[in-house]
Design brief:
The structure is a single chain. A 5-stranded antiparallel beta sheet has the order 4-3-2-1-5, with no helix packed on it. It is built from 1 helix and 5 strands. Helix content is 9%, strand content 33%. The relative contact order is 0.29. The chain has one domain.
């Protein structure tokens, strides 16, 4: 289980099966790294955690925890 909290820096990792859809592949590849977790989204009817992320370019998005990984600044 991934332990992520508000304030953590993250990167977006698209699902291999989702990459089959060209529009999603195009959109996902343009997330400006890193992103910062602003808040956890209260998603009724699901047990999977979802977060509101502000990306480096100022864009906001809501992402499922399964598509996020901690951002390792030492690798850039």
């Amino acid at each position: 289980m991934k332990v992520m909290k508000i304030g953590d820096l993250v990167k977006y990792i698209p699902s291999p099966s989702a990459a089959l859809f060209k529009w999603q592949k195009y959109m996902d590849s343009h997330k400006s790294l890193p992103g910062i977790i602003l808040q956890e989204v209260d998603a009724k009817g699901t047990t999977t955690r979802r977060f509101e992320i502000r990306w480096h370019d100022g864009q906001l998005s809501e992402e499922w925890i399964s598509y996020l990984e901690p951002f390792d600044n030492s690798l850039t």
